[in-house]
Design a protein that fits this description.
The complex is a heterodimer of chains A (about 220) and B (about 800). With about 220 residues, chain A is α/β, with parallel strands linked by helices. Helices cover about 35% and strands about 25% of the residues of chain A. Chain B has 25 helices and 22 strands. In chain B, the strands form 3 sheets. A 6-stranded mixed β-barrel of chain B has the order 3-4-9-6-8-7. Chain B has a 6-stranded mixed barrel with strand order 14-15-20-17-19-18. A 4-stranded antiparallel beta sheet of chain B has the order 13-21-12-22. In chain B, a hairpin with a 3-residue loop joins β18 and β19 (about 590-600). The chains are: A alpha/beta (about 220), B alpha+beta (about 800).
Chain lengths: ~220, ~800
């Protein structure tokens, strides 16, 4: 599904080239649950964004589902991304002015679903997450754990094949974190959704089938 | 999707109440301004468009030179029309007209009526005014017939049919037969009437045709519209031939044709009401546009200021799969919603403000004009344009946000668009400061009108009308009025001392034969100089005997004692002392000597330099001037009314004050002043709102810097000055740019007046300081608040 070959990414700062990613070779197959670990500044999030096609790279080869990302136009890239990827953030990133229902609905707005279809899909996922009673609340009326659940629900609404999670439990207490991790495991096992998560915690990393360690932009073989 | 956008737009408006209100108020004010001004401009441009033959009509302007003084005006003698029709094939027809004021009585109804117009009988052929009753061909064919406007007919006759009835004109004067009813004259017509009477009713119209006695307006109906230009060159030669023998030397008489449709906006001579002016239209149009621009700039600045807060949402939307295009349209939609709201508000405001606006501009625009299809289309266009102009930039910036950067913790939209924002800001203040300076100077000039030493005293002089019947009883009237010791002088005269007309010529026996000077003149009696407090330089005031000398039954026996002003004496080559006793003539028919020379006084508007003036002793006049002591007008005026009712029962008791009439001469300047004050207040308020927005934005971005400075122990005033410094610098730049612009504009405006204030540096420094202080206050409040916040709170964010 994901194939990274000799990926380099850098920024130029004061005449020096600072490498964010160095020579990354990584293949992730469909149905895997991969955890990326490493200290702050090691390039975890950069790698995740790169996989999610939110960020570019300077050198190397990236194939997503057999297509070379590098040669795609912005629009095509967006299209592939829209069809296949869901993002979950550490800080949840819900739109404060929208209700739970509307937040979850947002990705569908950009995918040409009919209003009735959208309604059915959102109701469905609200059911699954036990959020029916809270659908008209605004994000600031929810706890952190609940907000993250909404964030995940939003990521799942368009039935992506790949979920990218950037420290999804980073702002949560351990019990809430466990719930989220169990949800991921279940999604991975039951529905075959590929999951790539960035995490600091060994415990969370253990939920995954594979762990990748990054240090200074380089993959470490353990 | 649309619903979602709408929802978020409304919730955002509600959440950022202060910003929404600022934007709403700003845009509404701007659009309201634009709407009203558009109405005004449309109204002005529509003048006389309803005249079907309008493009073939020309107004005749008379120009003549006597003794080197060139006179020009919208008056002509009775001969112009007939002579032109006979001699120029281009002329199809002509209409002579004269406006007047008459006293009209029907049964017990007695009013002084303005807009009582005398016209030739073919009036309704040439002009497209619809007759609602009566025959347009014959209604004005015979003397003493009159056509009433609908409103007038209702006023005098109520539900009766007025046709065939008679009204009495000029008090007990003449009966006029009502021969028709005409639609009320449109607001956008240079010809204004309430009564249209036959020209043949005028006694002096029956006499021999002459180029002189130019008291009438002549309109020519031409065979085709190009004739205005092709006919013009022939007139001079034609008139030279006509006046052969009457003129010597460089003296001449000629006529200039003005296209009828250009009169209202382009002519310096009014129609039957005050003219508009194309310059005025440009000025108000530009100002309205500038105010709209200020409002839009504020909108743009506030939108970008708020963009930091919207950044996250945009990031999320993009991560959720939104294209840049979709985000762009979302924000355009949001600005569209706000503009639509403002436009609706503006429409209501415009309806409410229209009466006041009409008062300000001196027009009669009706509310129904607001719903004309053209204006609604224009309104829709404005909405779309502003939505785009104001919305596009923020939308463009916002939609270009990179989700990776936005969503990854600290996001600062530094640098981008800073130059543009600052330029917009400086531009707003250039406009504002320009307007402040202009308003300030216009006000100073208006004060100058009021306070300038005019050479006569305008206060406490009551003006009453006079006519033949009143003049007959003048002695009695004077005695009766003076029963009240507060009434010091009563003078009969042609004119108020601030409004004396020209059109006379004079000469003295020492001058070469045939040479004359044209002068301003009016009749006065022995109390005029005292009533008006006009100073005598040499000689003495008129005596009772001087008046008797001009009261002979056989007017050829009259002998005149003239009063000259200093300029007139100077023109004759006399100094005041040697002028006394010199022989001179006015218009040949009035021989006499110089009795006195008075100090130059401003007998016409301060637009014009003081010209030679001669006051002629006389026994007739149009007005009575009553100089009062002004101790208790509430007692004096009832006394005058009582006397008036017994001596002049044929006239309604109507009076005015000289100082008010004087003020009315500067109507258009006072109007400009008021408009300037309103526009200026609006502009500076909107600009300050913009400043508030921009400073909030900057300060919001600099919270970290403020926090660090505080932790390092920087004092409050250092932080505040650091925060406000850049804004104040920009305001100062704006002041520096606007000063020369304002100087240039105001200097050229002042050149219109022969007597005006001198521009001095303070007129620019004071408005500049005001602008800087207001800005300082606006930024200061925000800066102090930011600087007093707990630094820990700000530093923790990152």
């Amino acid at each position: 599904m994901i194939e990274l070959k000799n990926i380099f990414k850098w920024v130029n700062q004061g005449g020096n080239r600072i490498f964010l990613l160095k020579d990354i070779d990584l293949t992730i197959n469909e149905g895997e649950f991969v955890s990326i670990m490493g200290p702050s500044g090691s390039g975890k999030s950069t790698l995740l964004n790169l996989i999610g096609m939110l960020d570019g790279f300077d050198e190397g080869e990236y194939n997503f589902m057999g297509q070379s990302v590098k040669n795609l136009k912005e629009k095509q890239r967006s299209e592939i991304y829209k069809q296949n990827v869901g993002f979950v953030f550490q800080a949840y990133h819900l739109i404060d002015e929208l209700t739970v229902y509307e937040n979850i609905e947002t990705p569908l707005l950009y995918k040409d679903f009919k209003s009735s279809e959208r309604k059915a899909m959102v109701s469905d996922i609200l059911d699954r997450f036990n959020f029916v009673g809270k659908k008209d609340l605004f994000p600031n009326q929810l706890s952190g754990g609940q907000q993250q659940l909404v964030g995940i629900a939003r990521a799942l609404i368009s039935r992506p094949k790949l979920i990218l999670a950037d420290e999804p439990t980073g702002n949560l207490n351990s019990k809430q974190g466990e719930e989220i991790m169990e949800l991921f495991t279940k999604l991975n096992a039951d529905e075959g959704v590929t999951i790539v998560q960035v995490t600091h915690s060994e415990k969370n990393a253990a939920y995954g089938s594979r762990v990748i360690h990054l240090l200074d932009g380089r993959m470490e073989n353990k | 999707m649309f619903k979602n956008y709408l929802k978020i737009a409304i919730r955002n408006l509600y959440k950022n109440k202060i910003y929404s209100v600022i934007n709403l108020v700003g845009l509404s004010a701007g659009i309201t301004c634009c709407l009203l001004i558009t109405l005004y401009v449309r109204h002005e441009l529509s003048y006389d468009k309803f005249q079907e033959k309008g493009d073939r009509i020309a107004r005749v302007i008379m120009e003549y030179n006597m003794g080197g003084n060139i006179n020009k005006g919208n008056y002509t003698g009775t001969k112009v029309g007939p002579a032109f029709k006979k001699n120029f094939p281009e002329v199809e027809d002509f209409v002579k007209m004269m406006g007047s004021q008459q006293i009209v009585r029907y049964n017990d109804k007695l009013f002084t009526e303005k807009r009582f117009v005398f016209v030739d009988s073919n009036f309704f052929d040439v002009f497209s005014f619809r007759l609602l009753g009566g025959n347009p061909k014959t209604a004005l064919a015979s003397p003493n017939s009159v056509v009433l406007s609908q409103t007038v007919a209702k006023k005098y006759f109520g539900l009766e049919n007025p046709i065939g009835k008679t009204i009495r004109v000029s008090g007990a004067g003449t009966d006029y037969l009502v021969a028709g009813i005409v639609e009320d004259c449109p607001a956008n017509s240079q010809i204004k009437y309430n009564f249209i009477a036959s020209f043949s009713s005028l006694s002096f119209a029956k006499g021999e045709l002459t180029y002189w006695n130019a008291n009438y307006t002549t309109y020519l109906l031409l065979k085709d519209k190009d004739a205005v230009r092709s006919l013009q060159p022939k007139i001079r030669a034609f008139m030279r031939n006509e006046m052969k023998g009457e003129f010597t030397g460089s003296d001449y008489l000629t006529y200039i044709l003005e296209p009828f449709m250009d009169v209202h906006l382009y002519s310096e001579y009014p129609g039957f009401e005050m003219n508009g002016s194309i310059t005025y239209i440009y000025i108000v149009g530009a100002v309205a546009l500038l105010i709209l621009i200020i409002a839009c700039f504020t909108f743009i600045n506030l939108c970008t200021a708020k963009s930091v807060e919207r950044a996250k949402e945009i990031g999320i939307r993009k991560v959720a799969g939104a294209f840049k295009r979709q985000v762009f349209w979302q924000f355009i939609g949001e600005s569209g919603l706000l503009v639509l709201l403002s436009a609706s508000l503006s429409f209501i405001l415009a309806c409410l403000l229209l009466p006041a606006f009409n008062g300000l501009m001196g027009r009669e625009i009706s509310v129904s004009d607001l719903s004309s299809p053209a204006l609604i289309a224009a309104g829709a266009l404005i909405i779309v344009c502003i939505s785009f102009l104001a919305g596009a930039y923020p939308a463009f910036i916002l939609s270009a946000f990179q989700p990776v950067k936005v969503l990854k913790g600290a996001f600062k939209n530094t640098g981008s668009g800073l130059l543009l924002r600052r330029s917009l800001f400086v531009f707003q203040f250039i406009i504002s400061v320009f307007l402040i300076i202009s308003a300030f100077i216009v006000q100073k000039q208006l004060d100058f009108f009021q306070n300038e030493k005019l050479g006569f005293t305008k206060e406490l002089v009551i003006i009453l009308p006079a006519d033949q019947r009143i003049i007959k009883k003048l002695a009695l009237l004077k005695t009766e009025l003076k029963q009240d010791p507060d009434i010091r002088y009563v003078s009969l005269a042609d004119f108020e001392p601030c409004n004396i007309m020209g059109g006379y010529s004079m000469y003295n026996p020492e001058m070469p034969p045939g040479k004359v000077f044209s002068v301003f003149a009016g009749t006065v009696d022995q109390e005029y100089l005292k009533a008006c407090d006009i100073g005598i330089v040499a000689g003495s005031d008129l005596s009772d005997q001087d008046i008797k000398d001009v009261s002979n039954e056989d007017y050829t026996k009259n002998y005149f004692h003239f009063i000259l002003n200093e300029s007139a004496a100077k023109q004759m080559g006399w100094n005041p002392e040697e002028a006394i006793g010199k022989k001179m003539f006015m218009d040949e028919s009035r021989p006499g000597v110089v009795k006195a020379v008075v100090k130059d006084f401003h007998f016409s508007s301060l637009h014009n330099p003081i010209q030679p003036l001669i006051l002629i002793p006389g026994t007739y006049g149009n007005i009575l001037l009553l100089k009062t002591a002004g101790k208790d007008l509430s007692k004096t005026i009832p006394h005058i009314e009582k006397v008036w009712k017994t001596i002049a029962p044929h006239r309604p008791f109507e009076y005015s004050f000289l100082d008010e009439n004087y003020k009315a001469m500067y109507k258009s300047e006072i109007r400009l002043g008021k408009a300037m004050n309103i526009f200026t207040a609006l502009a500076i308020t909107l600009a300050l709102m913009g400043l508030f927005g921009l400073s909030s934005y900057t300060i919001q971005q600099r919270t970290k810097e403020i926090g660090i400075l505080k932790v390092l122990g920087a004092p409050l005033q250092y932080i505040v000055s650091r925060l406000s410094g850049q804004f104040i610098r920009m305001v100062i730049i704006a002041v520096i740019i606007s000063v020369p612009l304002a100087w240039w504009a105001m200097n050229s405006w002042l050149q219109d007046f022969s007597y005006h204030i001198e521009l001095n540096a303070w007129y620019f420094i004071i408005p500049g300081i005001i602008a800087v202080l207001l800005s300082l206050l606006t930024v200061g409040v925000k800066a102090v608040k930011a600087a007093s916040e707990n630094p820990v709170k700000n530093l923790r964010v990152d």
